[in-house]
Prior knowledge:
By secondary structure, this protein is mostly helical. The chain has five domains: about 110 residues, no CATH class; about 100 residues, Orthogonal Bundle (Cytochrome Bc1 Complex, Chain D, domain 2); about 180 residues, Cytochrome Bc1 Complex, Chain D, domain 2 (Orthogonal Bundle), CATH 1.10.760; about 80 residues, Cytochrome c-like domain (Cytochrome Bc1 Complex, Chain D, domain 2), CATH 1.10.760; about 80 residues, Cytochrome Bc1 Complex, Chain D, domain 2 (Orthogonal Bundle). Helices cover about 40% and strands about 5% of the residues. It has a two-stranded antiparallel ribbon with strand order 1-2. The radius of gyration is 34 Å and the shape is flat. The C terminus is likely disordered.
Amino acid sequence: xxxxxxxxxxxxxxxxxxxxxxxxxxxxxxxxxxxxxxxxxxxxxxxxxxxxxxxxxxxxxxxxxxxxxxxxxxxxxxxxxxxxxxxxxxxxxxxxxxxxxxxxxxxxxxxxxxxxxxxxxxxxxxxxxxxxxxxxxxxxxxxxxxxxxxxxxxxxxxxxxxxxxxxxxxxxxxxxxxxxxxxxxxxxxxxxxxxxxxxxxxxxxxxxxxxxxxxxxxxxxxxxxxxxxxxxxxxxxxxxxxxxxxxxxxxxxxxxxxxxxxxxxxxxxxxxxxxxxxxxxxxxxxxxxxxxxxxxxxxxxxxxxxxxxxxxxxxxxxxxxxxxxxxxxxxxxxxxxxxxxxxxxxxxxxxxxxxxxxxxxxxxxxxxxxxxxxxxxxxxxxxxxxxxxxxxxxxxxxxxxxxxxxxxxxxxxxxxxxxxxxxxxxxxxxxxxxxxxxxxxxxxxxxxxxxxxxxxxxxxxxxxxxxxxxxxxxxxxxxxxxxxxxxxxxxxxxxxxxxxxxxxxxxxxxxxxxxxxxxxxxxxxxxxxxxxxxxxxxxxxxxxxxxxxxxxxxxxxxxxxxxxxxxxxxxxxxxxxxxxxxxxxxxxxxxxxxxxxxxxxxxxxxxxxxxxxxxxxxxxxxxxxxxxxxxxxxxxxxxxxxxxxxxxxxxxxxxxxxxxxxxxxxxxxxxx
Length: 672
């Protein structure tokens, strides 16, 4: 029995309809592919190449260029795939240097164009490397997890591989990391690699001996009203909360009992002599006074309105007794000098905006306890210890991986004005942290717009996805510790606050001491430690005058001469003395061929940029002068002295002349 004809007709109808739908679906894919954005860009790029062609060969190459999806595959970089080059076609093409985007040649950087095959595009610019549309690749989609980095934050990507605080060719990132270190972000927020961070903020025990309650209250309320350049943030506490915190701090016993310290009591001093001591001690090599000075130590302009006389005298006598980790050295002032210097500072450095001093406090226990609770709650313990102890734990969330946090997990709170993007959220958090909602504790640092950009760049470098170990540039780990009695003296005079030895120390001085024994004569160094003289007039920071005992000066000079050496540098390159002919030829090279007087001063004439060379032979060993002239950057990578590629004879004769320059050159001598 045959099937009903109507059923067969319906079957054929459905078959026909499904066939048409299938054909339409098959057609959609090539049609969609034909209209993809990258095809349009590639066709236009071909026209750009034809327009820029300067030879028949280049014309043929442009015409033969196909239209296809292009990509960079990085199997050694977390298996990344970057299809950005499907649109950004001229990244390595010099002829596209002035072309419009997306055809423009990539700017030259330490990694481009040489390292495209190692890093691709997304490693630096982020975004979605596998995408082939602009919106998806750049992340112009709501709550897209990995949008492209705004151009001003591009240096953040450098920090994913470069883990040190200073990153070459990334000044904004380096500045941001330095700011995070300086303002104490690591005290409240855990960040991988900074677990051992140590705050430079002072211990707060013994404030009842150091200052007065009115000043302390004004300081907590608005630190920048008393010291505009301070990094202490504003916590925006109520007046009652500030009173409680002051009561708590006032109740903390001192680490140094001044009542039992006879050195803190002294008759009135001579302020004129104190002014002289302040000058010759070169305090502004570290401190600032009304904006003048180095700025690596606290501003002194208002110290007379802040501290008590007996505390200042005792502190100047031995700063390390009060703050064991202070960078301030110990000066060997006499008791008379201490009184003179303290009275000069108290008389000269006053602040008219500071409140009048008030007598000490005797607060109720409940007020003191309330103050301690507030101290812990708002995170003062992130930077300050009290009596050598850290009160409480870090109050901020961990920031490791913050750069990869999805936008959907960010709390925008009341900030409906912000774009839903991580960089904008971070910048707002840094500049105005409590604008998101009530009850937040992060203080306001008063960053400038540029500083906000720098800190945001540093935060955007804190990625969650690990970079392959072979691509990481670890932070330098110098561990030098000066040995024995030399180490004791280095710590007493805080030499490493300014100088560096074997990569350890500060950067106030431009002269590392690692090979100082190969550079200077020990007799000169011993005399210099007694009375430091100006070597480089252009440098404002000067070596401090410690009033160091002779036996200590001699010991340091001999230790440096015997231990801090570069064995490849001889002490002397002349078996006896340089000949008069060598000295004269060197003089002509100095003035006539190389123009050294443009930067160096001799006999009161010449430039200020480089060190003065009067008496250079008494200061510098000829072996070091010769080695320096043969290649300054071999001894100091950032040396500004040009490398002239001197042959051995020129370097020897220039050394002979420089070593012959007397300590007091005759007026107008030698420059003809």
